[in-house]
Design goal:
The complex is a heterotrimer of chains A (186), B (158) and C (698). Chain A has 6 helices and 8 strands, in the order ααββββαβαβαββα. With 186 residues, chain A is an alpha/beta fold. In chain A, the strands form 2 sheets. A 6-stranded mixed β-sheet of chain A has the order 1-8-7-4-5-6, with helices on one face. Chain A is globular. Chain A starts with a helix and ends with a helix. With 158 residues, chain B is mostly helical. In chain B, helix 2 crosses helix 3. In chain C, the strands form 3 sheets. In chain C, strands 5, 6, 7, 8, 9 and 10 form a 6-stranded antiparallel β-sheet that branches. With 698 residues, chain C is of the alpha+beta class. The chains are: A alpha/beta (186), B mainly alpha (158), C alpha+beta (698).
Chain lengths: 186, 158, 698
C-alpha cells in the first residue's frame, strides 16, 4: 500500500496521500467494526434473530409463528455436563408453563450424532421441542460461545433475558411469572 | 472315482454358494492413527483454532468417536470431512471448502505478493532511471571501517 | 497500607507522564530548555515510581495478601515462592503493570543514553514515549487496577455486602483471612513452566522496546530533523527490541512444545501470529534502515516500517486482550478492548498523517538513486517485500480473511495450518535465497560476474551438503530443495566470514584466530549479523526436519507389551504409578522404555497432572541432536495400571530450533555491543582509499 503512493508520488502527490489515508482509515474501520460485532452479545432488549428449526420429531418450528408468546430458547449438547444438570429443571418449567403459553425450545450445539441427542432427550424425559442446528447457523446468529446458554424472548420478539451458563427452575420461573404478569396487566 | 469328484465338486460349490449366501462382513479395523489422520484436517468446534486431533474437550472426544464410527462404516477421509463441513460449516476445516471463501482465503496473499513484486520492480526501475537528487559527491557515509573493508576486498581480488 | 502505596505510586507515575508530555511539547515548541529538562526529569521519575508499584505487588504476592483481588486470582497458599513472584505477570492486571514498568525503564534509559546527542529530537521522544506510557498507566489505574481489594460492608438492612474497591469504603472491614485464603485460585497450571515464566517478559521487552525507535521516528517527523540521526540513535534500541522479541517467540515455542502436548512448537494460532507480525515488520526495518544510513534512500519507507512495527505491536496487544479473536492463549475478555482499539487506531492514523505531511512538503527526498539491479539496495528492497508480504499473508490468515468472511459473508471460517503451510513456505524460501545472495552484493552496483564468482564456493559447499543429506537417506525432493536453499544462506555467511578472516591473515600476517577475533571487533554489526543469519539457518533446518519428517503414532499398550512405532523404534509400557506432588495435585505417571533397533535407549516418564481445573499431559522426551522421541499419555482416554493409550511423536532435528535460537542471541549481542574506536594507525593507512568509493560496509 505504501508502495502504491511511493509510485504515484511523481504524478500526483496529494492523490497518493489521499488513497493511502483512505486505505488505512477503512482498514482501521473494518477492524473496529469486527471488534464491535465480536463483542456484541445479544444483550437484553434486542430483537431475537428469527430462525426455523426442524425438530427431532420432524416438525417445522418457525420463531416468527410464535410472536405473541413467550419463547425460552436453550442451547445444549449431550457432552456438556452443566446441560445435564439443568435438563430436569427445564422439563419442569415446560410442564408448569406450557399451558400458559410459554414455548420452550431446545437447540443442540456441536453435536455429532442425532442418536446422542435423542438419548439425552430420553434420559431426562424431555417433552418440549428439540432440534439440531445444521452448520450452527442459529448458534451463530445468537452468538453462542459455549453451552448451555438460555434466552428468554418476550411476546414482542425481543430478548429480555440472556443467561450464558446454566440456569435453574427458580430463576426461570421468576422471570416467566413477571413477564406473564406484565402481559396480563397490559 | 468320477462320483467322488462329483461329490467333492458339489461340496465345493455348496461351500462357495453358502459363502455367498452369508457374506462375511470384513470388519474394518480403525486405529487411532486412522482417526487422527482425519481429525488432523478438522478443527475443534468449541475451542476455536484448536486442531481436532490434539483437543481434549468433550465435544472433540465425541467428534473423534464419530470419525471412528464413520471410518468403520467404510467411509473415506474426504467423505467424513465433507460430512463435518456440511453439518458445522467451513469453520471446521483449515481452509474453507466453499469455493468463494476458498478463493477469498488464497487469493488475498497472492494478490499482495504479485502487487508487492510489481511495485518493487517498478520502484527500483524508476529509481534507476531518475537522476540523483543531489550531485553525487563522494560517499557521504563512508567511514574508515568501510574503506578498510574495501582494502581487504582489493587484496582478495588478487 | 501496602495496596495504598501501590495505588499512589501508580497514580503519581501517571501524573508524571502526563506532565512530561505537556512540558516536553511546550518546551520543544517554544525552545525553552528548562521545560524540556523538567519534562525529562518527570519522565525519568516514572521509573522509580513504577518500581515501587511493582515491588508492592510482589511483596503482596509473596506474603499472600489475599485481600487484593489480583493476589487471590493468581496465587493460593500452596503456590511455591517462585511462582508467587512470577504471578506478577501471570494475569491481565499484573502484566499491564509490568508492561508499564518496562516502558518506563526503557524511556529512562533512552533519556540517559541519547540525551546529549539528540537534543533536537528529545522533546518529542519524551512526548511520544510518555504518551504510550500514560495510556498503559491509564488502563492500569482505571480499568485493570492490580491493587483492587475486596471489602465487606454492613448495609442498613443488616446484610453484609461484598465490595471491590481500591481504598477502604466507609463502614467497611476486610473479610477474614481464612475465607480469603480459601477463595484463592492459584496460577493457571498451563503457566507453570519456565518457558511461560520468561516468555511473556521477553515478549514485553521486545514489544516495549520498539516504542523507543518509534518515538524517535515520530520525533524526527515532528521536529523536522529528518536526517539519519533518528536511525543512528535507535539502531541499538531496535536490535535490542528485536532480540527480546525473537527470544520471546522462541521461548513461546519451547513452552508450547513442552506443555501443550501436541508435539509441535508453532501452531499458527492467531495469538502466536499476532506476536510474529511485529517481528516480521521489525526485521524488514532492521535491514532497510541500512540503506538509509549508507545511501540516504527509502526514507519514507523506513518511517512506514517502524510505524508498522509499532502499530503491529499495539494491534497484537489489542487483538489478544480484547476478544477480537478467540484462542487458547488469549486473555479473558475485558473492558480494555475499546481503549486499546482507540489507542491503536489513533496512533496509527496520527503517525501516517505525519509522514504524509512531511512527505507533501518534500522533506523526505532520497539522496541517491539505485545504481544497478545487482546491488545490495535491490536485495534489501526485495528482502523488505518478502517480509512485508509474509506479514500481510499471516495477518490475512489470522485476522483479515476470517473477519471479512464473517462481516460480509456471514460465515465463520478458520484458516489453520493448511493455509499457512501453503502460503508461507515459498515466501520463507525466497527469504533464505535473499539471505544467501544479499551478503555478497555490494552497495552501489555489483557485476553479475563478481557475484557469481563469490557464489562458487558456497554453492559447492551447498552441493556437498545435499550429497551428504542424500547419502544419509533423505530422498524427499521438497526437503532437498528446502535444505539446499537454507544451507546456501548458511554457507554464504560462513564463507564471507572466512574470506574476511583470510584477507586479514594475508595482509596483516595474523594467525587465523587472532584475525577472526579482530574481524569481529572491527565490524561487529556485519559479522554479528552473519551469526544471526547462521542462527536463522539452523532454525530453518530444524523446522524443515521436524515439519516434513515428523512421525505421529497413537496406540493402546498393555503393560509389559510393546508398540512398534516404525521400522526402527518401539515403545514398551513398563509401569504405572500414582503420586501426589507437594502442591496437592495427583499425578498419573507411566514408565516407558524407548527401543531402537531392539536396543533399549531410554526410559521416560510421561505423566498426567490432575489439576482441579483440567488434566494436563506432560510429555516425556528423549532428546538428541538427531531427533526427539516425545511420548504423551493421552489425557482424555482411560488410563490404568494395565493399559494406557500413548501418543508418540518423533521430531527429527527439532533441537536445532533451540540451538539456532542461541546462535541468534549470540549474533545479536555481538551486533549490539558497542564498537571500539578504530586505532589511529589503521585510519591513516586506509585514508587514501576513501576516494575510490568501493564501499563494502555492512
Amino acid at each position: 500500500m505504501e508502495m502504491i503512493t511511493e509510485q504515484k508520488r511523481r504524478f500526483s502527490l496529494s492523490l497518493g496521500s489521499i488513497v493511502l489515508m483512505l486505505g488505512i482509515l477503512s482498514f482501521v474501520g473494518v477492524i473496529g467494526w469486527a471488534y464491535i460485532e465480536q463483542n456484541r452479545t445479544l444483550g437484553e432488549n434486542r430483537p431475537a434473530p428469527t430462525f426455523t428449526l426442524t425438530t427431532f420429531d420432524g416438525e417445522e418450528f418457525d420463531l416468527e409463528d410464535y410472536r405473541g408468546q413467550i419463547v425460552v430458547l436453550n442451547f445444549w449438547a449431550s457432552w456438556c455436563a452443566p446441560c445435564h444438570a439443568e435438563a430436569p429443571d427445564l422439563q419442569r418449567i415446560h410442564e408448569r408453563y406450557a399451558e400458559r403459553g410459554v414455548v420452550l425450545v431446545g437447540i443442540t450445539y456441536s453435536e455429532t450424532s442425532v442418536e446422542d441427542s435423542l438419548n439425552f432427550i430420553e434420559q431426562y424425559g424431555l417433552t418440549y421441542r428439540n432440534g439440531a442446528d445444521p452448520r450452527m447457523r442459529i448458534a451463530d446468529s445468537y452468538r453462542i460461545t459455549g453451552v448451555p446458554e438460555t434466552f428468554v424472548i418476550r411476546q414482542d420478539g425481543k430478548i429480555v433475558k440472556y443467561y450464558p451458563g446454566s440456569i435453574n427452575e427458580t430463576i426461570l420461573s421468576n422471570v416467566l411469572e413477571t413477564l406473564l404478569a406484565e402481559d396480563n396487566a397490559s | 472315482m468320477g462320483r467322488l469328484i462329483i461329490i467333492l465338486l458339489s461340496f465345493l460349490i455348496s461351500i462357495v454358494v453358502l459363502a455367498q449366501d452369508e457374506p462375511q462382513p470384513t470388519p474394518i479395523v480403525v486405529t487411532y492413527d486412522d482417526v487422527n489422520a482425519v481429525a488432523q484436517q478438522l478443527y475443534c468446534p468449541v475451542c476455536e483454532n484448536e486442531p481436532l486431533h490434539t483437543c481434549g474437550a468433550p465435544a472433540c472426544v465425541q467428534w473423534r468417536e464419530e470419525i471412528r464410527e464413520q471410518l468403520a462404516a467404510g467411509r473415506t477421509s474426504e467423505q467424513i470431512v465433507d460430512y463435518f463441513v456440511t453439518n458445522y460449516g467451513d469453520r471446521v476445516v483449515g481452509i474453507p471448502q466453499d469455493d468463494g471463501l476458498r478463493l477469498l482465503s488464497i487469493a488475498g496473499p497472492l494478490v499482495v505478493l504479485i502487487l508487492g513484486g510489481l511495485l518493487g520492480f517498478f520502484a527500483i526501475q524508476r529509481w534507476r532511471n531518475t537522476r540523483p537528487m543531489q550531485p553525487h559527491t563522494q560517499h557521504p557515509t563512508t567511514t574508515e571501517d568501510e574503506s578498510y573493508r574495501s582494502q581487504l576486498e582489493q587484496d582478495l581480488r588478487l | 497500607m501496602l495496596a495504598e502505596i501501590g495505588v499512589v505510586a501508580l497514580g503519581l507515575a501517571f501524573i508524571a507522564s502526563m506532565y512530561a508530555i505537556v512540558a516536553a511539547i511546550y518546551g520543544g515548541r517554544t525552545h525553552q530548555e528548562r521545560w524540556v529538562i523538567s519534562a525529562r526529569n518527570a519522565a525519568i521519575a516514572t521509573f522509580p515510581l513504577m518500581l515501587i508499584a511493582c515491588l508492592v505487588l510482589v511483596i503482596a504476592l509473596m506474603n499472600g495478601e489475599y485481600q487484593i483481588n489480583y493476589v487471590r486470582a493468581t496465587t493460593d497458599p500452596s503456590t511455591p515462592d517462585f511462582y508467587r513472584f512470577t504471578a506478577l505477570w501471570g494475569s491481565q492486571e499484573g502484566s499491564l503493570l509490568f508492561w508499564s514498568s518496562i516502558m518506563s525503564l526503557f524511556a529512562m534509559l533512552a533519556m540517559l543514553i541519547n540525551w546529549h546527542n539528540e537534543r533536537r529530537l528529545m522533546p518529542y521522544v519524551i512526548a511520544y514515549s510518555m504518551a504510550t506510557l500514560a495510556f498503559f498507566l491509564f488502563l492500569s489505574l482505571f480499568l485493570e487496577n492490580p491493587f483492587e481489594r475486596v471489602w465487606l460492608t454492613l448495609g442498613e438492612d443488616g446484610q453484609t455486602r461484598v465490595v471491590d474497591s481500591l481504598f477502604i469504603p466507609p463502614n467497611a472491614f476486610p473479610p477474614t483471612l481464612e475465607s480469603l485464603a480459601a477463595d484463592a485460585r492459584g496460577l493457571n497450571p498451563l503457566l507453570r513452566h519456565f518457558g511461560m515464566i520468561i516468555h511473556p517478559p521477553m515478549l514485553y521487552l521486545g514489544f516495549v522496546g520498539f516504542t523507543i525507535p518509534f518515538a524517535f521516528a515520530m520525533a524526527a517527523l515532528a521536529s523536522g530533523d529528518l536526517s539519519t540521526n533518528w536511525i543512528k540513535a535507535t539502531r541499538r534500541w531496535t536490535l535490542v527490541a528485536w532480540l527480546f522479541l525473537s527470544l520471546g517467540l522462541i521461548l513461546g515455542g519451547r513452552w508450547a512444545y513442552d506443555v501443550l502436548g501436541w508435539g509441535g512448537y508453532w501452531g499458527w494460532d492467531p495469538v502466536e501470529n499476532a506476536a510474529f507480525l511485529p517481528w516480521l515488520i521489525g526485521t524488514a526495518f532492521l535491514h532497510s534502515v541500512m540503506i538509509q544510513e549508507k545511501r540516504g534512500m527509502l526514507k519514507v519507507w523506513n518511517m512506514f516500517l517502524i510505524i508498522g512495527t509499532f502499530s503491529a505491536v499495539m494491534f497484537g496487544t489489542f487483538a489478544t486482550r480484547s476478544g477480537l479473536i478467540e484462542s487458547v492463549h488469549s486473555f479473558a475478555r475485558s473492558e480494555i478492548g475499546l481503549p486499546m482499539f482507540i489507542f491503536w487506531a489513533g496512533i496509527t492514523l496520527v503517525s501516517v498523517s505525519m509522514i504524509i505531511w512531511r512527505w507533501n512538503r518534500g522533506e523526505l527526498q532520497d539522496e541517491h538513486h539505485f545504481a544497478g539491479w545487482f546491488s545490495r539496495e535491490t536485495m534489501f528492497v526485495l528482502n523488505n517485500i518478502v517480509f512485508i508480504v509474509l506479514a500481510v499473508a499471516i495477518f490475512w490468515g489470522s485476522f483479515g480473511a476470517p473477519i471479512i468472511s464473517e462481516l460480509f459473508a456471514g460465515e465463520e471460517i478458520t484458516l489453520g495450518t493448511d493455509y499457512f503451510m501453503r502460503v508461507t513456505p515459498p515466501l520463507f524460501a525466497l527469504m533464505y535465497i535473499l539471505m544467501g545472495v544479499a551478503p555478497i552484493s555490494a552497495w552501489g552496483a555489483t557485476s553479475i560476474n563478481r557475484m557469481g564468482r563469490a557464489m562458487v564456493i558456497p554453492l559447492m559447499l551447498t552441493f556437498l551438503t545435499l550429497v551428504l543429506i542424500v547419502l544419509l537417506g533423505t530422498r524427499h525432493l521438497v526437503a532437498l530443495v528446502a535444505y539446499g536453499v537454507v544451507s546456501l544462506a548458511g554457507w554464504v555467511a560462513v564463507y564471507e566470514t572466512y574470506r574476511g578472516m583470510m584477507a586479514r591473515v594475508r595482509t596483516r600476517h595474523e594467525n587465523p584466530l587472532v584475525a577472526l577475533i579482530a574481524l569481529f571487533t572491527r565490524n561487529r554489526r556485519r559479522y554479528g549479523g552473519y551469526i544471526v543469519h547462521l542462527g536463522i539457518v539452523v532454525i530453518g533446518i530444524g523446522i524443515i526436519g521436524s515439519t516434513l519428517f515428523q512421525i505421529e503414532r497413537q496406540g493402546l499398550i498393555l503393560r509389559g507389551e510393546t508398540l512398534q512405532i516404525n521400522d526402527e523404534y518401539a515403545l514398551r509400557f513398563d509401569d504405572f504409578t500414582v503420586a501426589q506432588a507437594n502442591d496437592g495435585r495427583i499425578m498419573d505417571i507411566a514408565t516407558v522404555t524407548v527401543i531402537r533397533n531392539n536396543k533399549e535407549i531410554a526410559q521416560l516418564q510421561p505423566r498426567i497432572d490432575q489439576f482441579p481445573s483440567m488434566p494436563m499431559s506432560i510429555a516425556g522426551a528423549h532428546s538428541t541432536l538427531e531427533n526427539d522421541f516425545y511420548v504423551l499419555l493421552v489425557p482424555w482416554e482411560n488410563i490404568s495400571a494395565e493399559s494406557a493409550i500413548f501418543k508418540v511423536y518423533i521430531n527429527p532435528l527439532v533441537n536445532l530450533v533451540w540451538w539456532g535460537g542461541l546462535i541468534l542471541i549470540l549474533g545479536t549481542i555481538i551486533s549490539v555491543y558497542p564498537n571500539d574506536k578504530i586505532p589511529v594507525r589503521v585510519r591513516s593507512t586506509v585514508q587514501p582509499q576513501l576516494a575510490t568509493g568501493a564501499a563494502w560496509g555492512d
